[in-house]
Design a protein that fits this description.
The chain is built from 3 helices and no strands. By secondary structure, the chain is mostly helical. Residues 17-82 form the Poly(A) polymerase nucleotidyltransferase domain.
């Protein structure tokens, strides 16, 4: 029995936005092959972050989020607006 192609197993993409997508076609096998090649190249070149790097990035982004929210609260209060965060 023949195995179904990978693109036949994927669910249709969700609709996002107000307009219809340009295309709802699944990627061709050539696209999938080139994606695998690119991922392998990136892995061999050390372009993926480690788990430790990922955690550090999340910590930094979380702190940046806190700083921005505190700044927005301070500015809006200084301008006389009620702040609810």
């Amino acid at each position: 029995m023949a195995m179904p192609k990978l693109n036949q197993l994927l669910p249709p993409p969700p609709r996002i936005g107000m307009w219809e997508p340009i295309s709802t076609a699944q990627p061709a096998e050539l696209d999938m092959s080139r994606t695998r090649e690119l991922q392998k190249f990136m892995e061999n070149a050390g372009l993926y972050e480690s788990g430790e790097e990922s955690l550090k990035r999340q910590e930094v982004l979380g702190r940046l989020d806190q700083i921005v929210k505190a700044w927005v609260k301070k500015v809006t209060e200084a301008k006389g607006y009620n702040v609810i965060i």
